[in-house]
Specification:
Layout (H helix, E strand, L loop, with lengths): L9 H9 L6 H11 L5 H10 L3 H10 L3 H11 L2
Length: 79
């Protein structure tokens, strides 16, 4: 998780977190937080969608209160 703050490691770090099976609750919460950010939100959501987490993303889009997170998810889910 700490590696996501390093620009040169960011993409690989997110990929590594997203491919954890099963995904730990702490990782899920971390990724939800990141999807609610304007900088990395769409990137994280896109990688999750590519790994088959679209059902989870749809659930978050309807149940979460963060407008930024909802917008990031909407953009990714409409692609």
């Amino acid at each position: 998780m700490a590696a996501t703050s390093n620009p040169s490691l960011k993409q690989q770090a997110y990929r590594s977190l997203i491919t954890l099976k099963p995904m730990p609750a702490s990782t899920r919460q971390f990724l939800i937080t990141k999807m609610g950010e304007t900088d990395d939100g769409q990137v994280v959501a896109q990688q999750l969608a590519q790994q088959g987490y679209t059902h989870w993303l749809r659930q978050l889009a309807t149940s979460h209160t963060s407008n930024v997170l909802k917008k990031n998810l909407q953009i990714v889910l409409e692609q």
